[in-house]
Amino acid sequence: MKKTILSGSTVTGDLTLGNYIGAINNWKRMQDEYDCLYFLADLHALTVHQDPAVLRERTYSFFAQYIALGLDPQKNIIFAQSQIHEHAELAWILTCLTPMGYLNRMTQFKEKAEKNVKNINAGLFSYPVLMAADILLYQADLVPVGEDQKQHLELCRDLVGYFENRYGKGVFKMPEPSIGKVGARIMSLQDPTKKMSKSDDNEKNYVSIIDDPKKIEKKIKSAATDSGTEIKYDPENKPGVANLLVIFSILSGKSLEQLENDYAGKMYGHLKVDLAELVVQTLTPVRERYLDLMKNKDHLHQLLQQGADRAQERARETLRKTYEAVGLISRS
Question: What is the pTM of this model?
Protein backbone atom coordinates (compact mmCIF):
# COMPACT_ATOMS: atom_id res chain seq x y z
CA MET A 1 0.00 0.00 0.00
CA LYS A 2 1.08 3.57 -0.66
CA LYS A 3 2.20 5.59 2.33
CA THR A 4 -0.02 8.51 3.30
CA ILE A 5 1.43 12.01 3.14
CA LEU A 6 -0.37 15.08 4.48
CA SER A 7 0.39 18.76 4.06
CA GLY A 8 -1.52 21.94 4.80
CA SER A 9 -1.09 25.66 4.32
CA THR A 10 -2.68 28.50 6.26
CA VAL A 11 -4.82 30.59 3.92
CA THR A 12 -2.97 33.86 4.48
CA GLY A 13 -0.96 35.69 1.84
CA ASP A 14 -0.35 33.87 -1.45
CA LEU A 15 1.77 30.84 -2.23
CA THR A 16 5.28 31.92 -3.10
CA LEU A 17 8.06 30.95 -5.45
CA GLY A 18 9.47 28.97 -2.52
CA ASN A 19 6.24 26.97 -2.29
CA TYR A 20 6.28 26.45 -6.05
CA ILE A 21 9.85 25.15 -5.99
CA GLY A 22 8.75 22.60 -3.41
CA ALA A 23 5.77 21.77 -5.58
CA ILE A 24 7.58 21.13 -8.85
CA ASN A 25 10.12 18.95 -7.08
CA ASN A 26 7.71 16.99 -4.96
CA TRP A 27 3.96 17.40 -5.43
CA LYS A 28 3.57 16.03 -8.96
CA ARG A 29 5.85 13.11 -8.15
CA MET A 30 4.21 12.45 -4.81
CA GLN A 31 0.68 12.23 -6.21
CA ASP A 32 1.73 9.09 -8.09
CA GLU A 33 3.96 7.62 -5.39
CA TYR A 34 1.91 8.43 -2.28
CA ASP A 35 -1.64 8.64 -0.99
CA CYS A 36 -1.72 12.45 -0.71
CA LEU A 37 -3.96 14.76 1.29
CA TYR A 38 -3.65 18.55 1.13
CA PHE A 39 -5.76 20.83 3.27
CA LEU A 40 -6.48 24.55 3.34
CA ALA A 41 -5.89 25.56 6.95
CA ASP A 42 -8.65 28.13 7.35
CA LEU A 43 -9.18 27.30 11.04
CA HIS A 44 -5.51 28.09 11.73
CA ALA A 45 -5.98 31.43 9.98
CA LEU A 46 -8.42 32.49 12.73
CA THR A 47 -5.57 32.91 15.23
CA VAL A 48 -5.17 36.33 13.58
CA HIS A 49 -8.18 38.57 12.94
CA GLN A 50 -9.64 37.89 9.49
CA ASP A 51 -12.18 39.77 7.44
CA PRO A 52 -14.85 37.07 6.81
CA ALA A 53 -15.33 37.91 3.12
CA VAL A 54 -11.57 38.02 2.51
CA LEU A 55 -11.00 34.72 4.33
CA ARG A 56 -13.69 32.99 2.27
CA GLU A 57 -12.27 34.39 -1.00
CA ARG A 58 -8.72 33.48 -0.04
CA THR A 59 -9.73 29.88 0.68
CA TYR A 60 -11.03 29.56 -2.86
CA SER A 61 -7.90 31.32 -4.10
CA PHE A 62 -5.58 28.87 -2.34
CA PHE A 63 -7.52 25.94 -3.69
CA ALA A 64 -7.19 27.35 -7.22
CA GLN A 65 -3.46 27.94 -6.64
CA TYR A 66 -3.00 24.30 -5.58
CA ILE A 67 -4.68 23.08 -8.74
CA ALA A 68 -2.75 25.57 -10.90
CA LEU A 69 0.47 24.21 -9.41
CA GLY A 70 -0.40 20.81 -10.80
CA LEU A 71 -2.22 19.07 -7.96
CA ASP A 72 -4.90 16.87 -9.48
CA PRO A 73 -8.03 16.90 -7.24
CA GLN A 74 -8.85 13.40 -8.49
CA LYS A 75 -5.44 11.90 -7.63
CA ASN A 76 -5.16 13.85 -4.37
CA ILE A 77 -7.62 14.67 -1.61
CA ILE A 78 -7.74 18.47 -1.34
CA PHE A 79 -10.12 20.01 1.19
CA ALA A 80 -10.84 22.93 3.51
CA GLN A 81 -10.02 22.14 7.14
CA SER A 82 -13.15 23.83 8.52
CA GLN A 83 -15.44 21.54 6.50
CA ILE A 84 -14.27 18.55 8.57
CA HIS A 85 -15.60 19.04 12.12
CA GLU A 86 -13.47 16.12 13.32
CA HIS A 87 -10.41 18.41 13.33
CA ALA A 88 -11.83 20.53 16.15
CA GLU A 89 -13.17 17.51 18.07
CA LEU A 90 -9.88 15.63 18.05
CA ALA A 91 -8.00 18.83 18.88
CA TRP A 92 -10.00 19.15 22.13
CA ILE A 93 -9.19 15.58 23.18
CA LEU A 94 -5.50 16.13 22.44
CA THR A 95 -5.56 19.49 24.24
CA CYS A 96 -6.56 17.65 27.38
CA LEU A 97 -3.38 15.56 27.05
CA THR A 98 -0.99 18.42 26.27
CA PRO A 99 1.20 19.79 29.09
CA MET A 100 1.13 23.60 29.27
CA GLY A 101 4.91 23.64 29.49
CA TYR A 102 5.23 22.10 26.05
CA LEU A 103 3.18 24.86 24.48
CA ASN A 104 5.10 27.52 26.42
CA ARG A 105 8.28 26.34 24.70
CA MET A 106 6.95 26.72 21.17
CA THR A 107 9.19 29.26 19.44
CA GLN A 108 6.58 30.13 16.80
CA PHE A 109 4.12 31.18 19.51
CA LYS A 110 6.69 33.56 20.95
CA GLU A 111 7.45 35.01 17.53
CA LYS A 112 3.80 35.42 16.53
CA ALA A 113 2.85 36.84 19.92
CA GLU A 114 5.45 39.56 19.43
CA LYS A 115 3.86 40.45 16.07
CA ASN A 116 0.29 40.33 17.42
CA VAL A 117 0.59 41.96 20.84
CA LYS A 118 -3.03 43.17 20.67
CA ASN A 119 -4.40 39.69 19.90
CA ILE A 120 -2.48 37.07 21.87
CA ASN A 121 -5.38 34.63 22.02
CA ALA A 122 -5.69 31.07 23.31
CA GLY A 123 -5.92 29.77 19.75
CA LEU A 124 -2.50 31.23 18.94
CA PHE A 125 -1.14 29.43 22.00
CA SER A 126 -2.75 26.05 21.34
CA TYR A 127 -2.74 25.83 17.55
CA PRO A 128 0.11 23.24 17.55
CA VAL A 129 -2.43 20.87 19.12
CA LEU A 130 -4.86 21.50 16.26
CA MET A 131 -1.94 20.85 13.91
CA ALA A 132 -1.39 17.50 15.62
CA ALA A 133 -5.08 16.68 15.14
CA ASP A 134 -4.78 17.59 11.45
CA ILE A 135 -2.01 15.04 11.05
CA LEU A 136 -3.34 12.23 13.22
CA LEU A 137 -6.88 12.25 11.81
CA TYR A 138 -5.66 10.90 8.47
CA GLN A 139 -3.15 8.36 9.77
CA ALA A 140 -0.34 10.21 7.99
CA ASP A 141 2.94 8.34 7.60
CA LEU A 142 4.86 11.39 6.40
CA VAL A 143 4.46 15.13 6.91
CA PRO A 144 6.51 17.54 4.75
CA VAL A 145 7.81 20.16 7.18
CA GLY A 146 10.30 22.98 7.08
CA GLU A 147 12.80 23.49 9.87
CA ASP A 148 10.43 25.99 11.50
CA GLN A 149 7.71 23.34 11.83
CA LYS A 150 9.81 20.45 13.17
CA GLN A 151 9.04 21.45 16.77
CA HIS A 152 5.30 21.11 16.10
CA LEU A 153 5.72 17.66 14.59
CA GLU A 154 7.77 16.62 17.61
CA LEU A 155 4.84 17.69 19.82
CA CYS A 156 2.51 15.62 17.64
CA ARG A 157 4.73 12.58 18.11
CA ASP A 158 4.84 13.20 21.87
CA LEU A 159 1.04 13.33 21.97
CA VAL A 160 0.84 9.94 20.26
CA GLY A 161 3.07 8.59 23.03
CA TYR A 162 0.97 10.17 25.78
CA PHE A 163 -2.23 8.83 24.23
CA GLU A 164 -0.83 5.31 23.91
CA ASN A 165 0.44 5.32 27.51
CA ARG A 166 -2.99 6.30 28.80
CA TYR A 167 -5.38 4.58 26.40
CA GLY A 168 -3.39 1.93 24.53
CA LYS A 169 -2.04 1.56 21.02
CA GLY A 170 -3.80 1.09 17.71
CA VAL A 171 -5.56 4.43 17.30
CA PHE A 172 -2.91 6.67 15.70
CA LYS A 173 0.10 6.21 13.46
CA MET A 174 3.38 7.77 14.53
CA PRO A 175 4.10 10.38 11.82
CA GLU A 176 7.58 10.98 10.42
CA PRO A 177 8.95 14.24 8.98
CA SER A 178 9.62 14.51 5.26
CA ILE A 179 12.11 17.32 4.66
CA GLY A 180 13.19 18.11 1.13
CA LYS A 181 16.94 18.53 0.65
CA VAL A 182 17.50 20.65 -2.45
CA GLY A 183 15.65 23.95 -2.53
CA ALA A 184 13.69 23.18 0.61
CA ARG A 185 14.60 26.56 2.05
CA ILE A 186 14.29 29.43 -0.41
CA MET A 187 15.24 32.67 1.28
CA SER A 188 13.75 36.15 1.37
CA LEU A 189 14.74 38.33 -1.59
CA GLN A 190 15.52 41.35 0.56
CA ASP A 191 16.83 39.54 3.64
CA PRO A 192 18.45 36.28 2.49
CA THR A 193 19.17 35.27 6.09
CA LYS A 194 15.44 34.57 6.55
CA LYS A 195 13.16 32.07 4.81
CA MET A 196 10.85 33.35 2.07
CA SER A 197 7.40 33.53 3.63
CA LYS A 198 3.95 34.11 2.16
CA SER A 199 2.92 35.93 5.34
CA ASP A 200 5.77 38.46 5.13
CA ASP A 201 4.55 42.03 5.59
CA ASN A 202 6.98 43.27 2.92
CA GLU A 203 5.90 41.88 -0.47
CA LYS A 204 9.34 42.71 -1.91
CA ASN A 205 10.67 39.78 0.11
CA TYR A 206 8.85 37.15 -1.92
CA VAL A 207 7.54 36.34 -5.39
CA SER A 208 3.93 35.22 -5.37
CA ILE A 209 3.07 32.49 -7.88
CA ILE A 210 0.26 34.72 -9.16
CA ASP A 211 2.28 37.93 -9.46
CA ASP A 212 2.13 39.52 -12.90
CA PRO A 213 5.33 39.44 -15.02
CA LYS A 214 6.27 43.08 -14.42
CA LYS A 215 6.02 42.66 -10.66
CA ILE A 216 8.14 39.49 -10.80
CA GLU A 217 10.84 41.24 -12.83
CA LYS A 218 10.91 44.19 -10.44
CA LYS A 219 11.20 41.96 -7.35
CA ILE A 220 13.99 39.79 -8.78
CA LYS A 221 15.97 42.76 -10.10
CA SER A 222 15.76 44.51 -6.72
CA ALA A 223 16.78 41.39 -4.75
CA ALA A 224 19.58 41.88 -2.24
CA THR A 225 23.04 40.80 -3.32
CA ASP A 226 26.39 40.95 -1.55
CA SER A 227 29.69 42.81 -1.52
CA GLY A 228 32.09 42.03 -4.32
CA THR A 229 31.18 41.09 -7.87
CA GLU A 230 31.93 37.35 -8.13
CA ILE A 231 28.88 35.17 -8.80
CA LYS A 232 29.60 32.21 -6.54
CA TYR A 233 27.53 29.84 -4.41
CA ASP A 234 28.68 30.73 -0.91
CA PRO A 235 25.71 30.78 1.51
CA GLU A 236 27.82 31.97 4.44
CA ASN A 237 29.57 34.91 2.81
CA LYS A 238 27.25 35.58 -0.16
CA PRO A 239 23.74 34.62 1.02
CA GLY A 240 21.96 36.88 -1.48
CA VAL A 241 23.74 35.55 -4.55
CA ALA A 242 23.56 31.98 -3.20
CA ASN A 243 19.77 32.29 -2.88
CA LEU A 244 19.41 33.52 -6.45
CA LEU A 245 21.66 30.71 -7.71
CA VAL A 246 19.60 28.06 -5.87
CA ILE A 247 16.39 29.37 -7.43
CA PHE A 248 18.04 29.49 -10.88
CA SER A 249 19.47 25.98 -10.48
CA ILE A 250 16.18 24.36 -9.52
CA LEU A 251 14.09 26.11 -12.17
CA SER A 252 16.61 25.58 -14.98
CA GLY A 253 17.91 22.13 -14.05
CA LYS A 254 21.49 23.42 -14.22
CA SER A 255 23.93 22.61 -11.44
CA LEU A 256 25.26 25.36 -9.20
CA GLU A 257 28.74 24.72 -10.58
CA GLN A 258 27.48 25.09 -14.15
CA LEU A 259 25.82 28.40 -13.28
CA GLU A 260 29.02 29.66 -11.66
CA ASN A 261 30.85 28.89 -14.91
CA ASP A 262 28.12 30.49 -17.04
CA TYR A 263 28.35 33.74 -15.09
CA ALA A 264 32.10 33.86 -14.54
CA GLY A 265 33.24 37.42 -15.18
CA LYS A 266 29.67 38.74 -15.40
CA MET A 267 27.85 41.16 -13.09
CA TYR A 268 25.05 40.54 -10.64
CA GLY A 269 22.73 42.43 -12.99
CA HIS A 270 23.23 39.81 -15.71
CA LEU A 271 22.22 37.05 -13.30
CA LYS A 272 19.13 38.94 -12.14
CA VAL A 273 17.91 39.73 -15.66
CA ASP A 274 18.21 36.10 -16.75
CA LEU A 275 16.66 34.79 -13.53
CA ALA A 276 13.72 37.20 -13.81
CA GLU A 277 13.06 35.96 -17.34
CA LEU A 278 13.22 32.33 -16.19
CA VAL A 279 10.87 32.90 -13.25
CA VAL A 280 8.36 34.69 -15.50
CA GLN A 281 8.46 31.84 -18.03
CA THR A 282 7.97 29.31 -15.24
CA LEU A 283 5.11 31.03 -13.42
CA THR A 284 3.14 32.48 -16.34
CA PRO A 285 1.31 29.18 -17.12
CA VAL A 286 0.51 28.81 -13.40
CA ARG A 287 -0.92 32.32 -13.21
CA GLU A 288 -2.99 31.83 -16.38
CA ARG A 289 -4.41 28.56 -15.08
CA TYR A 290 -5.19 30.19 -11.74
CA LEU A 291 -7.03 33.14 -13.29
CA ASP A 292 -9.08 30.75 -15.41
CA LEU A 293 -10.07 28.65 -12.38
CA MET A 294 -11.09 31.69 -10.35
CA LYS A 295 -13.65 32.63 -12.99
CA ASN A 296 -15.83 29.67 -11.97
CA LYS A 297 -16.36 29.61 -8.19
CA ASP A 298 -19.22 27.11 -8.51
CA HIS A 299 -16.84 24.59 -10.03
CA LEU A 300 -14.24 25.23 -7.32
CA HIS A 301 -16.91 24.82 -4.64
CA GLN A 302 -18.03 21.52 -6.12
CA LEU A 303 -14.47 20.21 -6.18
CA LEU A 304 -13.94 21.34 -2.58
CA GLN A 305 -17.07 19.49 -1.49
CA GLN A 306 -15.88 16.32 -3.22
CA GLY A 307 -12.55 16.60 -1.42
CA ALA A 308 -14.27 17.19 1.92
CA ASP A 309 -16.45 14.11 1.47
CA ARG A 310 -13.40 11.93 0.79
CA ALA A 311 -11.45 13.43 3.69
CA GLN A 312 -14.30 13.15 6.19
CA GLU A 313 -14.73 9.45 5.48
CA ARG A 314 -11.22 8.89 6.84
CA ALA A 315 -11.46 11.42 9.65
CA ARG A 316 -14.71 9.94 10.91
CA GLU A 317 -13.14 6.49 11.32
CA THR A 318 -10.17 7.87 13.27
CA LEU A 319 -12.41 9.89 15.56
CA ARG A 320 -14.62 6.84 16.15
CA LYS A 321 -11.58 4.88 17.34
CA THR A 322 -10.50 7.81 19.51
CA TYR A 323 -13.92 8.13 21.16
CA GLU A 324 -13.97 4.42 21.88
CA ALA A 325 -10.50 4.54 23.40
CA VAL A 326 -11.17 7.48 25.72
CA GLY A 327 -14.66 6.39 26.76
CA LEU A 328 -16.82 8.81 24.79
CA ILE A 329 -19.99 7.64 23.06
CA SER A 330 -19.90 7.99 19.28
CA ARG A 331 -22.99 8.75 17.25
CA SER A 332 -23.92 5.76 15.15
Answer: 0.89
Output the 3-class SS for the chain.
CCCEEEEEEECCCCCEHHHHHHHHHHHHHHHHHCEEEEEEEHHHHCCCCCCHHHHHHHHHHHHHHHHHCCCCCCCCEEEEHHHCCHHHHHHHHHHCCCCHHHHHCCHHHHHHHHHCCCCCCHHHHHHHHHHHHHHHHCCCCEEECCHHHHHHHHHHHHHHHHHHHHHCCCCCCCCEEECCCCCCCCECCCCCCCECCCCCCCHHHCCECCCCHHHHHHHHHCCCCCCCCCCCCECCCEHHHHHHHHHHHHHHCCCHHHHHHHCCCCCHHHHHHHHHHHHHHHHHHHHHHHHHHCCCHHHHHHHHHHHHHHHHHHHHHHHHHHHHHHCCCCCC
Contacts of 76 (CB under 8 A, 6+ apart): 31, 36, 37, 38
Answer whether 15's CB lies under 8 Å from 198's CB.
yes
Which tens digit of pLDDT belongs to each residue from 263-307? 999 999 999 999 999 999 999 999 999 999 999 999 999 999 999
Convert the pLDDT of each residue in 191-245 to its tens digit: 999 989 888 889 999 999 999 999 999 999 999 999 889 999 999 999 999 999 9
- Comparing 184 with 32, which gets the higher pLDDT? 32
Domain 203-292 sits in CATH at 1.10.240.10
Q: Look up the CATH superfamily of 4-178+296-326.
A: HUPs (3.40.50.620)
Q: What is the pLDDT of residues 5-64, one digit of tens each?
A: 999 889 988 899 988 887 666 777 788 889 999 999 999 999 888 999 999 999 999 999
| Residues marked as catalytic | 112, 195, 198
Question: Is 192:242 a contact under the CB 8 Å cutoff?
Answer: yes
- Domain range summary for the chain, segments of one domain joined by +: 4-178+296-326, 203-292
Output the pLDDT for position 179.
66
Q: What is the pLDDT of residue 183?
A: 45
Beta bridge partner(s), residue 82: none
